[in-house]
Amino acid sequence: MNNMSIFNVTKSKLKRLEKRPRVTQDVSTLGSFFKTKKPRIETPHFFSGKSACSPTWYGDTTPEIDEKTGGFTGKLVVSYNDPVLKDPCVRECVEVHEKSHVEDLQPLVKKIHDCDVAAGDDWDKKGKCSEMSNKELPFMVNKSECKAYRKSYSCLTLKLLDSNSPCSKSPHKEKINEHRQSEACELKERCTAAGTPHEGIPVS
Ligand SMILES: [Zn+2]
After folding, report:
1. At a CB cut-off of 8 Å and minimum separation 6, what does 12 contact?
2. 142 with 18: CB under 8 angstroms?
3. From the CA of 112, how far away is ligand 1's center (Å)?
4. pTM for the whole thing?
5. pLDDT digit string, tens, across residues 78-105
6. Ligand 1: distance of its center to the CA of 53 in Å?
7. How do the domains of the chain map onto residue ranges?
8. 38 Cα to the center of ligand 1, angstroms
9. Distance (Å) from CA 78 to ligand 1 centroid
10. How many angstroms separate the alpha carbon of residue 54 from the centre of ligand 1?
11. For 116-137, how does the pLDDT look when each residue is reduced to its tens digit (9 = 90+)?
12. What is the C-alpha to C-alpha distance for residues 172 and 170, in angstroms, rounded to an integer?
């Protein structure tokens, strides 16, 4: 019998595993549903959440979903919340953050995609891909966030410290400081959740 929800890394499951999207949304949204007969596209994004750390999301890194199969294509889609990401100095650091996620997640989404392709129509084999996904993706979320926030937080701080950069002057300075506050909050939460609380202490 075909298992209709072969990939049960559901959004709700991942939502429970990590708290909420804040400065970035990224892998918290992973919903992978491999369907062969009736493709069902689950939108991988849910941008609605506010959090204790940040009122909105700024960047997002999500596995690309194949519209035909509903599975991962093996690629990632990076997007930015342009209406709220107007300051170019802040944006550069959000880009640094997302790039870090891409580096972390690229090998894994490709592995899951390759596994699914190799499984073909064999649902038992697809189940193994599902197991791999269920095990490895949630495990990566906080770890990848901790790493990405360390990079973006440092990026913001360095911009403030560079007196030759317009980013260290008004109005960018104020925007950067706003983001540093929410990022410091994220950094602490995510690194603690990842089991490495010492990495969540800003160095500057
Ligand atoms: Zn992130």
Report:
1. none
2. yes
3. 21
4. 0.75
5. 999 999 999 999 999 999 999 999 999 9
6. 13
7. 11-200
8. 32
9. 11
10. 12
11. 999 998 989 988 988 888 888 8
12. 5
